[in-house]
Design brief:
CATH topology of the largest domain: D-Maltodextrin-Binding Protein, domain 2
CATH class of the largest domain: Alpha Beta
Number of domains: 3
Structural class: alpha/beta
Number of helices: 18
Largest sheet: 5 strands, mixed
Helix content: 40-55%
Distance between the termini: 85 Å
Radius of gyration: 40 Å
Strand content: 15-25%
Number of strands: 13
CATH architecture of the largest domain: 3-Layer(aba) Sandwich
CATH superfamily of the largest domain: Periplasmic binding protein-like II
Length: about 400
């Protein structure tokens, strides 16, 4: 073993081709650096070491490696792919946690149709909302639920909200539907209000139901007091509808969906309440039902509310225009007859609000004066005019 080889082994130097190890290449990217352990400077100058045995300091310059051509191409491609993967991960990650809304909806109302479409088409996720729905038996249950704060939102009418505000509550109302009922009759001789004299008239709801008070006010303009000229029977909408269909009642004042069902079963429309509203001063198709919630809740959640209203509006227009959406809604309708379902859809679509909240408020204020006159304090309390804040108007800054 020659002296040069021994010295290289001692100082861990790379061996040349004649003795063993070749310089080691450390590579990155498309370059390689030739590396070797630099020997002690004193050893390089050792006077007794033969000249040919002295080791030259390694060259640390860069040299092109065999991967040069591929490296300049692969490196930017790898960076691009990495960036694309990062962007994809950010895109699928939720921008924010879904806002939770608790809804209380009457199980026979159109609100549950809309929520079925919302769920089927993923509109809630699109709006960033988590909806918890409690189905309620009737409108009275909805009123109890919102007053007890068991839910955040229910569907009711603006007249009830006005009365609550007159009594100090801070409930407010946002338009949901303009669909309104009609006076239906099995007796073909009943063609006008005057023909109800001596007849048995069923009224869906109670003596302070808004539709009933509007009809009474309209009749009074013709000198007719329906409470005296006819025998009035009050009851829940399904019960009144069934008694009218079986002929136990000569006529029935029904909600729009039950009126559609009765029409399909052979009863005729004596008068549509839309005509009554117009005769009493309404400039358009006034809203009948709406979403009711507390002002405090609205102040804390303006953006989720705005997205909720936009989501419901999208669901409504899907029901109107898409047969697929309508098939989803139909699953929540008890009626199965296609003729009845067609009438339901027609009435529902006609009831989609098309006016501003301010226009709705103005019409409601006019009708309120008429209703307050005929219903008195039992209906409106101490408020002789529509209380301020009855209609909710979203702030312009609310994020949709």
């Amino acid at each position: 073993m020659n002296e040069n080889w021994r010295l290289k082994r001692r100082f861990h130097l790379p061996l040349d081709e004649g003795g063993g190890r070749a310089p080691k290449a450390i590579g990155w990217g498309c370059f390689r650096r030739v590396s070797a352990v630099r020997p002690h400077p004193g050893w390089l100058r050792h006077p007794t070491l033969p000249i040919k045995g002295r080791v030259k300091a390694p060259d640390l310059s860069f040299t092109r490696s065999p991967c040069t051509e591929a490296g300049f191409i692969l490196r930017p491609i790898f960076q691009t792919l990495l960036l694309a993967a990062l962007v994809a991960l950010l895109a699928v990650a939720p921008a924010r946690a879904a806002d939770r809304l608790r809804l209380g909806l009457q199980k026979t109302g159109s609100g549950v149709w809309e929520l079925a479409v919302v769920s089927a088409f993923g509109l809630d996720k699109e709006a960033g909302l988590e909806l918890t729905v409690t189905e309620l038996a009737n409108t009275d249950a909805a009123k109890i639920a919102i007053q007890s704060s068991s839910v955040d939102i229910v569907v009711s009418d603006w007249l009830w909200v006005a009365r609550q505000r007159a009594d100090g509550a801070k409930l407010t109302f946002y338009p949901h539907s303009t669909a309104i009922g009609a006076l239906m009759a099995r007796d073909k001789t009943v063609k006008s209000l005057s023909d109800l004299t001596g007849k048995k008239l069923g009224v869906a709801g109670g003596p302070l139901d808004k539709s009933w008070l509007l009809l009474r006010a309209y009749a009074q303009r013709s000198g007719i007091d329906l409470t005296k000229s006819a025998t009035i029977v009050y009851g829940a909408p399904p019960l009144i509808a069934e008694k009218a269909a079986e002929g136990e009642l000569d006529a029935a004042l029904e909600f729009w969906n039950f009126a559609a069902d009765l029409e399909a079963r052979g009863l005729s429309r004596v008068i549509d309440l839309r005509k009554v509203e117009t005769a009493l001063g309404a400039k358009g198709a006034p809203v009948v039902t709406g979403y009711v919630f507390d002002e405090g809740f609205a102040a804390k959640s303006p953006a989720p509310l705005a997205r909720f209203f936009a989501m419901i509006d999208k669901a409504r227009h899907l029901i109107a225009a898409s047969d697929a959406a309508w098939r989803v809604a139909m699953q929540r309708i008890p009626a199965k007859d296609l003729a009845v379902l067609a009438l339901y859809r027609k009435s529902y679509v006609e009831g989609i609000p098309a006016r501003s909240v301010e226009q709705e408020r103005e019409d409601a204020a006019g009708l309120y004066a008429t209703l307050a006159e005929i219903g008195g304090p039992a209906l409106v309390g101490s408020a002789k005019a529509l209380p301020a804040g009855t209609f909710y108007e979203p702030a312009a800054s609310a994020v949709r």
